[in-house]
Design brief:
heterodimer; A: alpha/beta; Rossmann fold; 5 domains; seven-stranded parallel sheet; B: alpha/beta; Purple Acid Phosphatase, chain A, domain 2; eight-stranded mixed sheet; seven-stranded mixed sheet; 15 strands; globular
């Protein structure tokens, strides 16, 4: 890079350090410095290895050292992960110590000791590195206003992880609060490259703002594993390629195998150990493992003490793990951004390409992998959709505000709607949320004397907490991440991690299962602890974990359709994939990229309808249910359906002759509510809403509630509320969440408004090649929870009656 | 609603999916653990559960009386959740108590949650006996037959790889325990202490479904 004589950073306090390291300032760093100096809010987009962290601190450090005798808190740095915050401190420490700059900085997170936190409040450092939850907590203290009054900068790291979730809503509200406390506050966002950069800017910045972007990427080298084996029709475990995956590991010094689920991680890990003849040091890492086990793996990884880690998204973000040479992605990439993020873990150097091998576990995944590689080559990323903010988060924020002191109901509203996710928040909804915090916000006024917050007598716009003790409850409930009910697994006295309660419930004493890479025998369950011992059993279950299933991104789906639609694209495909597609073309048809294929064929006395929507798992699941209902109305006697990312398959006793008629927007009006109800989707989301809005507590002090009990009581609340007050704000909020998160509403609408001319209906004599992988996924009944309960009881009774040789009880 | 026959103490009882037990021969309805006003008790701790539990539970109770027109209603304890519960009564609830206690004799066996509050027309007793059967809230050591509440029994049913919990009627040769009648009440697993110990091994379990009561 040419030395720019006009580069203002040559006079920056950090310049001597940059020179000593024989580095030079990046162009985007110079631009950032200039823009922020002129008072702009900025979002900086830069790839890994381009000094992103330092970029954030350039202005704060300069400002701190040039403002005379600045005392107290100057800059807040928000990181998405606690572990990342520690890493940021280490990076910041180097130049500051080296140059002996008079700047103090500390981490504040859930792991910070109470003593340290107290000390920070009395004598704040210049820079605090923290998380959204810890920031919310800081804002809930009575002295928050004084604490933040001179704050100059807030830096949001990895802003792309914050755009589309409730955590982002919480953060956004707290940034506006800081702005109120300190009107001169400037906002700096740091991000990996994004497709919709403007959206990131809209989310973070005020009017006077700039996007600064450093487009320099070395294309990663990604290939698909060339297997001697046949890629299976369906399945998700990649057992067929295990020997070849092992070879890939032994070929490189250090590798990470990314899988899509925790169950896959355990399975892959176990299978690798079975063939580990070369005694490679292999570890496993996922979100359910105990923190210290995870940390141990991370440390060993950065010290180069292991050869390979099998990991889930738990290792996607964050620290620089030294010399990871190769990434092996097993299973569908699901999205371009995600694959790129994972592949980027193999290399942190700007000019050397990352290396990755993709291992599709079935045939559709092969095409998906191909498509992902194509899109990465073209630099075509997925768009991150901004969402309207969730209402429960506002309720929590109102409670937090009350904890920090009295507030004016109108002023708080005006502050909240400045936050981008809440630009469109209605005043009437907001007032309901204030009432929710006050006494639950019910129409039936029973709780007047038990209120949590109360209006002042002489000014009805001012609200304050009735009892300071309530602050403790807020602090226990803060945050937007709600875990499923989990139980701790104990091997002797050692905690291995957490497992879903529902999995343990289905185990009997003596059953064995795999966890943390070990075969364990289930001994007993007491309170929230599952006691296990090591086992040599050859037959063992793998815990399943619900939730977190990512749908195929719209962008990648488009690319998959393009690859399928034209023969020219198949040239270097393995012969089995080519044959598969060729046969499909012969027997049925391969839909063009804007065509919508429906196939129907008889099979084993039933009629099957396959709808190739390529709309991702969430919306396909919903569509399957809605169509099942619609088919019932048309008297086709439907029996069930199965959906995956690519298609939906329904089967019925009678032929669904007029299926196209059902693909209509009316389908939603008639059956969507039913769907949300019967599949317990809203009920589940209501639980999150009730906890986040602090209507019910995560844990009662002194009372160890099991997760199951919390779930149980929120279910009760839900059904009572549904019956008596169906318009309650929390029900509304839960429905909104369902539409946003669980059913991919927009994609659903797109399918149901499709032009009928684009639909190709193929009546076949037998199953088509493309339908085979999907039909193989039919392995479970699709019944509602209510039906399932009934079914289990009926069935059990029948069996018992049969045993007892009695015909009927009634 | 279809009923489930439970033979106990040489008598025939019918269990209903609304968690009431009907003694047809004597025209007596038996219910347990209504916990009226539970939500208001939580509200005191600033946990604002929907305040409709009292209304729902009472509606269920009065509907049940309307349907069977029993001569007697025996509540085996915990009609109220605590001393504030009556605050959750609406005017209509008081009126209904007045109305229904005129036709049906209300016997309220005092439970551990029931405080010294009185309700018009309802006679509160420490225990109660009909023929050979004692009605208690918490079972006592006795050789007599007992019908009780208190424990809110529920049963875990595992079948074909799935588990569900259902509140249940449960009995052995001497003791019959009713599920809770209140809408906002949890349950205690019959496999766990103290129920496990109390009931012994020889028991009949009758899980309550939405349309009928089952027999395991």
């Amino acid at each position: 890079m040419n030395i720019d004589k006009t580069n203002p950073l040559l006079l920056h306090p950090l310049n001597p350090w940059i020179e000593k390291k024989k580095w030079s300032w990046f162009e985007h760093q110079i631009e950032t410095f200039k823009a922020v100096k002129k008072g702009f809010d900025v979002v900086v987009f830069a790839p890994t290895g381009a000094g992103k962290t330092l970029t954030g601190f350039i202005n704060p450090i300069e400002d701190l050292l040039t403002s005379k005798k600045f005392k107290g808190l100057h800059t807040i740095y928000i990181s998405p992960l606690k572990s990342l915050a520690n890493d940021i401190v280490r990076n910041l420490e180097k130049p500051i110590k080296d140059l002996d700059l008079k700047i103090t900085f500390e981490v504040r997170s859930g792991d910070t000791t109470a003593y340290k936190k107290q000390k920070q409040k009395r004598r704040p450092p210049n820079i605090i590195i923290t998380t959204p939850e810890s920031l919310a907590l800081l804002n809930s203290y009575e002295d928050a206003k004084i604490f933040f009054q001179n704050l100059k900068f807030i830096i949001i790291d990895e802003i792309h992880t914050f755009l589309d979730n409730k955590r982002a809503d919480l953060l956004s509200l707290n940034i506006e609060r800081l702005q109120t406390y300190s009107p001169h506050l400037q906002r700096i966002g740091l991000s990996a490259t994004l497709k919709n950069k403007q959206d990131a800017k809209k989310w973070l910045c005020r009017k006077k703002s700039k996007i600064i972007s450093f487009e320099h990427s070395t294309l990663p080298k990604i290939k698909i594993l060339k297997s001697k084996e046949r890629i299976p029709w369906s399945g998700h475990m990649a057992t067929y390629a295990i020997n070849e995956i092992y070879k890939e590991i032994t070929n490189s010094k250090l590798s990470i195998i990314f899988v899509n689920t925790r169950a896959q991680a355990e399975y892959m890990f176990k299978n690798l150990w079975l063939i580990n003849k070369k005694k490679k040091r292999i570890a496993v890492h996922h979100g359910s493992l105990e923190q210290n086990l995870r940390l141990k793996v991370e440390t060993n990884l950065s010290k180069g003490l292991i050869d390979c880690v099998v990991a889930t998204s738990s290792l996607e973000l964050g620290l620089d793990y030294g010399d990871v040479e190769k990434i092996i992605q097993v299973g569908a990439p699901k999205g371009v951004n995600r694959l790129l993020q994972r592949v980027g873990r193999s290399n942190h150097n700007l000019n050397t390409p990352s290396k990755a091998v993709l291992v599709p576990t079935n045939r559709f995944e092969f095409i998906e992998s191909k498509a992902a590689i194509e899109e990465i080559k073209k630099g075509n990323l997925d768009k991150i959709e901004l969402k309207e903010g969730s209402l429960d988060v506002v309720a929590q924020h109102i409670f937090a505000t009350a904890c920090s002191g009295s507030f004016n109901i109108n002023d708080l509203y005006l502050e909240i709607i400045k936050a981008y996710p809440y630009n469109n928040l209605l005043k009437k909804d907001y007032v309901q949320l204030v009432k929710l915090i006050q006494d639950g916000g019910y129409i039936l006024k029973n709780y007047d004397q038990f209120r949590r917050i109360q209006q002042e007598k002489d000014n009805k716009n001012i609200y304050r907490l009735v009892n300071r003790r309530e602050t403790r409850k807020y602090r226990m409930n803060v945050g937007t991440i709600i875990e499923n009910p989990m139980l701790k697994i104990k091997l002797g006295t050692k905690t291995l991690g957490n497992i879903e309660e529902i999995f343990i419930q289905n185990l009997s004493q003596g059953d064995s299962f795999i966890f943390a890479g070990k075969v364990l025998e289930f001994l007993s369950m007491k309170n929230n602890l599952v006691q296990v011992k090591k086992s040599n059993s050859k037959i063992s279950k793998i815990p399943s974990y619900s939730g977190g299933r990512m749908p195929l991104s719209t962008n990648l789906a488009k690319s998959v359709r393009k690859l399928i639609s034209s023969k020219d694209n198949w040239k270097e495909y393995p012969s089995q994939i080519k044959e598969w597609l060729d046969r499909q073309n012969l027997i049925s048809v391969l839909p063009k990229k804007d065509e919508f294929l429906i196939e129907q064929f008889p099979r084993k006395k039933n009629y099957y309808t396959v709808i190739y929507s390529f709309a991702g798992w969430h919306s396909n699941q919903t569509l399957g249910f809605l169509l099942l209902r619609g088919m019932k109305e048309l008297k086709y006697k439907p029996l069930g359906f199965v959906a995956n990312d690519y298609a939906i398959i329904l089967w019925s006793l009678d032929e669904a002759t007029e299926i196209i008629k059902l693909l209509n927007i009316n389908l939603i009006e008639r059956h969507l509510e039913n769907y949300l109800e019967e599949t317990s989707i809203v009920k589940r989301l209501f639980r999150d809403n009730a906890i986040i809005s602090c209507l019910i507590e995560r844990r009662l002090p002194g009372m160890e509630k099991t997760g199951k009990q919390v779930l149980f009581s929120s279910d009760l609340i839900y059904s009572v509320l549904k019956k008596n007050e169906p318009n309650h704000i929390l029900l509304q909020s839960s429905y909104d969440d369902a539409k946003k998160n669980m059913i991919d509403y927009d994609r659903l609408i797109r399918i149901l408004t499709i032009n009928n001319k684009k639909i190709i209906l193929k009546k076949l004599k037998t199953i088509s090649p493309l339908a085979v992988p999907i039909i193989l996924e039919i392995n479970r009944e699709n019944l509602s929870k209510k039906d399932t309960d009934q079914y289990i009881l009926e069935d059990l009774e029948k069996e018992i009656l049969k045993e007892a040789n009695v015909q009927s009880i009634n | 609603m279809s009923s489930q026959l439970i033979k106990f103490a040489n008598e025939e009882f019918y269990a209903y999916p609304n968690s009431a037990l009907y003694w047809k021969k004597l025209n007596i309805i038996i219910v347990a653990d209504l916990h009226l006003g539970k939500s208001i008790s939580f509200a005191k701790q600033k946990q604002f559960l929907p305040p409709y539990d009292t209304k729902e539970t009472l509606t269920k109770l009065f509907n049940c009386i309307n349907e069977y027109g029993p001569s007697k209603l025996i509540i085996v304890g915990d009609l109220l959740h605590d001393m504030f519960s009556v605050q959750s009564f609406q005017d209509r609830d008081h009126e209904n108590f007045n109305k229904y206690t005129k036709k049906t004799e209300f016997i309220w066996v005092k439970g551990n949650h029931d405080s010294n509050v009185e309700i018009n027309g309802v006679s509160k007793v420490l225990d109660y006996k009909v023929n050979e059967i004692i009605f208690n809230h918490i079972p006592i050591k006795t050789k007599n037959f007992q019908i009780c509440g208190h424990y809110h029994p529920k049963v875990k049913i595992s079948h074909r790889g799935k588990s569900i919990y259902k509140s249940s009627f449960v009995n052995n040769d001497k003791l019959l325990i009713l599920p809770s009648f209140g809408t906002l009440t949890g349950g205690l697993n019959i496999d766990k202490e103290p129920l496990k110990d109390l009931l012994g091994k020889n028991i009949n379990i009758f899980p309550v479904g939405s349309e009928k009561v089952y027999k395991l």
